[in-house]
Amino acid sequence: MYLSETRRADAGKETSPDAPGGDGAPSPDGPGGDGGTPPGAGPGRAGPGGGPGRVLTGNVVALGLVSLFTDVSSEMVTAILPLYLIYQLSLSPMQFGFLDGVYTGATAVLRLVGGHVADRFHRRKLVAGVGYGLSAVCKIGYLVAGRSLPLIGLVIGLDRAGKGLRTAPRDAMISLSAAPEAQGRAFGLHRAMDTAGALMGPLAAFGVVAAVGGANDYDAVFVVSSLVAVIGVLVLVLFVHEPGGVVGRRVASGTYAASDRGRTAVAGDRGRGAARRPARERQKVSLRGALDLVRERPFRRVLLAMLPLSLATVSDSFLYLMLQRRLDIDAGWLPLLPVGVAAAYLLAAVPLGRLADRVGRSAVVIGGYLALLACYGLVLLPPGPAVLVAALVLRGLSYGATDGVVSALAGPLLPEERRATGLAVVQTGQALGMMAASWAFGVLWTAGGSEMAVKVMAAGLGVALVVAVPLLRKVRG
């Protein structure tokens, strides 16, 4: 009921030029205002009639539900893959690192494709829907692949290709559905709902395996996972609408970082006039124009900062395997380790999103990678239950401080017509970096053991922070 009502409300605002703060009315805060929050209304609170200052728009909530169901589905499979590949198919750490890299990096190129196509044809919802649908179908593909390693690699690649297609258009829709000053909170809410799914996914996988009575019988997990993913696709189709109403126009014609000093450019009447023009009359989105985004110093600094940090990020699967082996935990309990990370992430996502809007998104991102570095240090300590819990909590906190906050940091630096493309550029760099990190970690583990591999990655993350911190501190957001 809430979703359908808020969706109609959002649609009404989109088609009503006479609404307060609409196309034909000046912003209550004057040109270049904060996106329509009336005087006296705090950030994230609805103005008269539920204006764009509201964070809990129907679109943000609906996209959160889509991600919740999709993450239940994805994490069901992710939770059992290390067991299936390492203990049933007997892969070496190097082989597992290769497949884990494919799992992470297969999204890279398609993130750019998905973002560019979504912007060029103004079909963010459609492109995201194709990505969600492809991932849903691929869950059944694991049944067809059986024990064939090449086929498993192909299914993993297609599954992650779906994620690559959907991520940038989805994040662009979130960014365009929230006021500029509420980006951190909107992404925090979305990531909290997304992580609620990540929390339920491993529990669901554990329950399904226990219910079918066979620790090695994962077919039921794949079937249930696919059905849950289909629910997510249906929510997207029924309740998410293409942004472009008051919120989208205000974000487009409001403030953007226009220089390395973080200056803001006010579009004013010219921006509002452009927003009133039909989509076909607006500036066309070309691939060359998308590449021009990298020339903007604030955006380029975010991109250059995220690349080395991603190159030094150990994948969660490797983290769980190391903790399981160092603490001598029975392999059957391995699917439950992601629950600790997801629980910490779930609790931290919204508060850290609010904190990012208040003190600066760059500072929160830096804190997130410091938490990751501390997590590496804990893994090297003598094993014990306290070390296990603290390492999982720190990993969850690092997600809460970086995952959605990076998009909230980069989004307002980009114009509306290239929002998905620009976010895709950042996410592609992150995906390629983490793919290389998985491959490198697998080689290091095989050559010198897991402890040596962690030490090398921790040192690399320390160097990456030295490079990234000065860049991020110059980005106001």
UniProtKB/TrEMBL annotation:
* Major location category of this protein: membrane
Specify the protein's topology with respect to the membrane.
Multi-pass membrane protein
Q: Provide ranges: composition bias, Gly residues.
A: 30-51
Residue ranges annotated for the Major facilitator superfamily (MFS) profile domain, each copy included:
59-476
Per UniProt, the ranges with Basic and acidic residues bias are: 1-16
Show the stretches that span the lipid bilayer. Answer: 195-214, 220-240, 302-321, 333-352, 364-381, 387-410, 422-446, 452-472
Keywords on record: Membrane, Transmembrane, Transmembrane helix
Q: Which PROSITE patterns match?
A: MFS
- The answer to whether the entry has keyword Transmembrane helix is yes
Where is coiled-coil annotated?
none
> In its UniProt entry, what is this protein called?
MFS transporter
Upper classification of the source organism reads: Bacteria, Bacillati, Actinomycetota, Actinomycetes, Streptosporangiales
